[in-house]
Amino acid sequence: MVTLIDNNAVPALRHPEKRNRPESAVLRKPEWLRVKAPGSEGYNQTRKIVKDNGLVTVCEEAACPNIGECWSQKHATMMIMGDTCTRACAFCNVKTGLPGPLDTGEPERVALAVQQMGLSHVVITSVDRDDLVDGGGEHFAQVVRAIRAAAPATTIEILTPDFLRKDGAAEQVIDAQPDVFNHNLETVPRLYLKIRPGARYYHSLRLLERVKERDPSQFTKSGLMVGLGETKEEVMQMMDDMRSAGIDFITIGQYLQPTRRHAPIDRYVEPAEFKAYEAIARAKGFLMVSASPLTRSSHHAGEDFARLKAARAAKAAATSAQR
Q: What architecture is domain 36-317?
């Protein structure tokens, strides 16, 4: 049975393998990063639906700052395949360890929750499951198919692991035909060994390129965090890499240090710098850009998907008019 985890109840168990890491000072948050504490009626209703269906959400597991806003609107990002990740990324608040077996009833429960919330657009993500032969690719596909059956009008966005060394896994997910295939690159290549040691930058980039090769109709999306020590030049090079892979949608948000045991914040990037990144990304040809201190992969995902479709249609019309 998949259960919700109270992030504050068992802090010592969330990253058992990180207990001996030196603690770092947490910088004081600037005013533009302060959000209201959750507690609205809509928030409580969403929490009840999630709890009643025995589901895990990345909103809670990753301590997302936007949980109050999203849940008050009955938007929640489901995290499938358990609450325990086989990776130990330095930025992530999801606990690390050996996960349990897959819950075969999860796809139907996720689909039921989507139906109960009346979602027009849903985001499904997961922990990394390096312990599984296919990295959980078929389970992801089953969840997509279950949602299609229960809520055929709902558009589906997936945020997947990298399926590193899992031949054929990505193709299983692509062939389930989600509307948006998202995989976050997270940070610039130079910082991978420190921030995302279990992943490989060019493998992740290639994963998104393969989506476009196999199904050009699917939108691809990727995101990165800033404030980890990257330079502006490295961010712009990363944008070029993404465009070379055909990525449609880029998200850029401020890294927030979950605990003192996680990677320290190098700096808080000011809102004006995010606006500059947005302008540069649009000039480089992304169909959709979301860049702000509180931007997260699934924040405003439904509204952004509508804009993404409109941008593709406008681009197609402009191309046709030039012929």
A: Alpha-Beta Barrel (3.20)
